[in-house]
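user: can you give me the structure for this one chain? tokens are fine.
assistant: on it. calling the predictor now.
[tool input]
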Amino acid sequence: EMIFFYIYNRNSFFSLYLRLRSCGQDANGVPLRRSKRGWMWNQFFLLEEYTGTDLQYVGKLHSDSDRGDGSVKYVLTGEGAGTLFKIDEKSGDIHATKRLDREEKAFYILHAKAVNRFTNEALEGESEFIIKIHDINDNEPRFTKDPYMARVPEMSDIGTSVIQVTAIDADDATYGNSAKVVYSILEGQPYFSVDPETGLIKTALPGMDREVKENYQVVIQAKDMAGQMGGLSGTTTVSITLSDVNDNPPRFTKSEYTHENHLSVVPESIELGSAVGVIRAMDADIGQNAEMDYRIIGSDGPGMFEITTNRSTQEGVILLRKPLDYERKRQYSLRVQVENVHINPRFYSKGPFRDEATIKIIVEDVDEPPVFERASYVMEVKEDAPKNTAIGSVSASDPDDKTASYTIDRRTDMDRVFNIHAGNGSVFILRELDREENAWHNITVIATEFTNPRQISRVPVYVRVLDVNDNPPTFANNYETFVCENAKANQVIRTVGATDPDAPLGGHRFFFSLAQEAAGKANFSVRDNKNNTASILTRRNSYSTLQKSVYHVPVVISDGEFPMQSSTNTLTIRVCTCDREGNMKACNAEALTARAGLSTGALVAILLCVIILLMIVVLFAALRRQRKKEPLIISKEDVRDNVVSYNDEGGGEEDTQAFDIGTLRNPEAIEDSKQRRDIVPEAFYPPIRRPVLPPTRDNNGDVRDFINQRLQDNDSDPTAPPYDSLATYAYEGNGSVAESLSSLESVTTESDQDYNYLSEWGPRFKKLADLYGGDDSDRDS
């Protein structure tokens, strides 16, 4: 059985849906049934931007299970269900609750099902459908940029591409012409044009010159609906700049430049390398197209000037390469050419990209200092030349034909060895010279213009002192040697050399010989080696220290210069005992000292240094010992007990005549007050409490009398040192009344004594007060 039904959607069209039911049979004759579907559909359509007052109707859902009794409930789920889209649960009508914008969302996917209202049992399976939003032309085209910036070379041909603009329409490009955009130009004609379909902007006019107009503003319109009436449109501005090309040659503003054309007059005293003028050619182009090179193509002073280009200002700077002299040439003429660096072959037809001009340079006269004929002077003089001898002359001329005077810069001649004639420049010496003291003298001569003392020039003068043979040769060293007692005849014992402060041109040549006064009785001989040295030889087979221990050999040394100079030098030879090989074994003290290389003065100096060091060490040790020794009482504030030991030696155990030690332990013997020993009492002495001594045996009376006598002596002499000191008297012997001094065994009168007063003596006697100051019952226990 076939049943056809539809669901009406007023915004689109009628949709035809097919429901099939078959009533065939299987092989057993049982009727077959196909599973049924309540409905089938694919999509609904809805217009965007609905402006009606009622809810916009979308469509209707209906199930064949719906008998119209209200038992069927339609349920809608998915995108926008319940908010954008609502369904009537009973009738299945779907409505849109809000205005929809296709540009925000083009379609919605929803799900629908039919359930039993009372049991909530699904009557139909869930089905999916789509609601598509139909587009309307509600969006105008929008350009991707606003404004656009573009550049195009000047003098471009017609049709040269400049820039492409793009406009985007948010409407549906697949539905109608809402998104079909057409471009047109509103402003910028007749210079530019635009392609209506691609938006490509091109040049429309030939020969656009940047130097005439550089910037252009072009307005482009984009309109949808293919440009038809009623379409929406948008505009943008395109700022187009013509870029520069080298289409203009450089040109000088004048064909000839002089000082009247702002080219300054050049003084003749200007320094080399200085700028003497600046020239500039004009070029309408900019950037690298306006870069120029200047060069001199002609001049009446070859090599006098050169021209360089200042790249930052494109100016030609004329520099001086040779000195100017107003007296020789007062004006120069230069032919200068300027040319572009970067030339575009496309514009060769506009003529040569270069220009030429003539430059006149005027030289100005200035007052110049005198000029010496030479940059420096070298003069020679013999060292034996007398005073006021002229050794040479200098000469300076003034370019302005003025008179000059000469002086010597005394800062270069502090000893005033030289002088100069102020008029003719003759240099002469003021005192005798010594080549050995100073072979060269460097002085400076000053030439001063007579009418203008500020105009001066300086020149160095080097004076060389020539040598004359005025110094005799001498031994090269202070030679000393020894000869063995067993020496053989003609044995070389020493080779000597000579020195001479003179410096002959051909070098030194010395001659050695034995002095004539020693030639007849000489024990040694001198042999000239012909190489500026001489050998000292023995003349006999043996020498004896007993006969003579020291020999002095006079040697005459002469040079070969004129006049000949000679001197007699003495060689000291000491006789020493040697072994068979000639090694020295024993020699006198002077020889040994000489061979050791230490003189008597050196030994004395070393000995003095050792003595001084020892004295310093002893002094340092004494100072350290003195620092370590401290006084007995450091200050008056020190309250420590000081015990002075006198190291007295008693009589020993056999001394039985000592005092009774028991009496010393009687506390009653302690004085209540003591007189200060460091202050002399004034008129009288206060009474002193005497200790009450307990009764003792008669054989201790001598001790008691001795103590009383000593106590009386001390009380009557308040200034006797040491002040505030303690005198101790000790006694020990057979048959002592005190017997043992131990506090544990002493039983003399301890039980009769009262030690409570110890607690009144302060914290220093607290320990004794605790030991002896208790009750009798405590001590007994």
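assistant: here you go. The chain has seven helices and 45 strands. The CA atoms of residues 88 and 94 lie 7 Å apart.
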